[in-house]
């Protein structure tokens, strides 16, 4: 499968613990995005990478959240000191570079986080 | 703040009919509007993108319109099939990529056989 891959698919953690999610984008895509989706709502933008550079971050991304994309390949999203409000589906997407036309974004299946 | 409203949380239609979904927005002047399909437990799948200077775009049985005066987009699925049953999300942005997309909460479409 050459789509966007996310790991794990599900994560249950106790409040206060740290969690890390991984996203492997489509190999030729240099743009990578993280979104968060709660039940019954649309996804909310968290952050965006072009290659290894984190170019944009949402105000939703508090200081407990950190994302990296070393070497411009896979990305990780870490949440420290998890809170119940962090329970959501965390979605990763990737796309080609923007060359003046539209670029289709491909989403992974997401990591569902439950904080108990 | 930006606000996006998608018509009714759920829409049921009979197979073969045309489904029309609405996306209204306020306090925003997007340059691009995108429509996605999302099945339960899966990530969104890109369907169509329309620019602010385009009135209409088509792809197979799908048609999207974008009225920047009314601040509204209509999404049509003609000759609907049960396999079209899913949640459909509209998303606005200032760029044509997935950067800082602002999504609506979606409309759940059920096509009845």
What does this 3D model show about the protein?
The complex is a heterodimer of chains A (116) and B (113). By secondary structure, chain A is mainly β. Helices cover 0% and strands 48% of the residues of chain A. In chain A, the strands form two sheets. In chain A, strands 2, 4, 5, 6, 9, 10 and 11 form a seven-stranded mixed β-sheet that branches. In chain A, strands 1-3-8-7 form a four-stranded antiparallel β-sheet, with no helix packed on it. Chain A is globular. By secondary structure, chain B is mostly beta strands. Helices cover 0% and strands 56% of the residues of chain B. Chain B contains no helices and eleven strands. Chain B has strands at residues 3-6, 10-14, 19-26, 32-38, 45-51, 56-59, 62-67, 72-77, 86-93, 102-103, 107-112. In chain B, strands 2, 4, 5, 9, 10 and 11 form a six-stranded mixed β-sheet that branches. The radius of gyration of chain B is 13 Å and the shape is globular. The model of chain B has no long low-confidence stretch (mean pLDDT 92). The chains are: A mainly beta (116), B mainly beta (113). The A-B interface holds A 4, 31, 33, 35, 40-45, 48, 56, 58, 91, 93, 95, 98, 101-110 and B 4, 32, 41-46, 49, 51, 89, 91, 95-106.
